Amino acid sequence: MTGRELLRLIGAQVCLHATMAGMRLATPLLALQQGHSPAAVGVLIALFALTQVFLALPAGRCADRHGLKRPMALSATAASAGVLLALLWPSFAAMCVAALMTGGATGATVIALQRHVGRSAHDTGELKRMFSWLAIAPAAANFLGPFAAGLLIDHAGRTPADLLAFRVSFFALALLPLASWLLVRRAPEQPPSPPPAGAVPTRAWDLLRAPLFRRLLFVNWLQSSSWDVHSFVLPVLGHERGLSAAVIGTLLGAFAIAAALVRVALPVIAARVAERHVIFTSTVVTAAVFAVYPLLHSPWTMGACSVVLGLALGAVQPMVMSLLHQITPSHRQGEALGLRLMTINASSVAMPMLFGTVGALIGIGGVFWILGGVLALGGRAVLGLQIGPGDHKA
């Protein structure tokens, strides 16, 4: 795959992911303006991730059967249709449907693109480099989508944040999936990988029989939970420290920027360092940061921890994706990606509730210490991510 082709695929993911990110900002604001309760808004936000839990495995099987273009066409159509529904009927019910459709479309896009990019690599070094570049797309989309939506909501109407402004914002977001499809429609499809002759029908859960796949999924869950606990607990911890909303937002922004910057540098790092060593270093650094985070009170020291944490956790996903493609049979890579995405999104829905319960019982600092301890114990699992002769894909 040439650099230009990879750039088009990155742009395609940015466009479709930005649609969801923009809707995740615009729909809660409109719902609150219409008088809906914070609890209802919380349900609305959860729907963006909920669809990905249930559609991840079917989306993975679809990618295995049809490659890149058909899943991308379906995703772009679903995302645009969902946003247009909210544009035409800006009710709470329509926004919930839009959240389900844009969230599901984004998940299916991620799986199809990751599978295509992984199958395009010629060796392990190229695999790591390509996933490092592809991992920049969500960070860029999470900036572009909310920024564009917020700008239009404030300035595109007769008055700031009137219904016309929201509709203009929805219309602009509905165009992004079409741009995504235009970017991938000329991409060359990879040759299909049919199952071996005589292979018996399989289920996605059969992949968990492979010890290395189970270990990789567990390690990925640890890192994803660390990301979730920081995003959920930091605002609560900052509130306890008396920090303003602007300062707390700056701390979260510093984390996101660091996670994006490390992915820019990762192609150089990945060429010299094995995947498990990057993940192990990230695990050790994250456990150490979680140990000291609750002891800090200064915004500057908390900001430094946020940056270090962003650098550590931002480096993990490309390494996980590289390992996953090396150990998964070619004809089941979409299924494996779907199982991974389903696990992460299910965790993102459930873990904040668990964190809140534990924090209420033992204090919010205890949540950091518990997860830091789990990470320290999980370091042994990371060291076991050694690919043996029998672990490579078929």
Task: Supply database-style keywords.
394 residues, mainly alpha, 14 helices, disordered C terminus, Tet-R_TetA/multi-R_MdtG-like, membrane, MFS_trans_sf
Major β-sheet profile:
none
Radius of gyration: 21 Å
Structural class: mainly alpha
Strand content: under 5%
As a percent range, the share of helical residues equals over 70%
- What is the helix/strand order? HHHHHHHHHHHHHH
**Number of DSSP helices?**
14
Query: How many strand segments?
Result: 0
Straight-line distance between termini: 22 Å
Report on the architecture of this protein.
With 394 residues, the protein is mainly α. It is 80% helix and 0% strand. α8 packs antiparallel against α12. The protein is globular and about 60 Å long. The C terminus is likely disordered. This is MFS transporter. It is found in: Membrane. It is a multi-pass membrane protein. Keywords: Membrane, Transmembrane, Transmembrane helix.
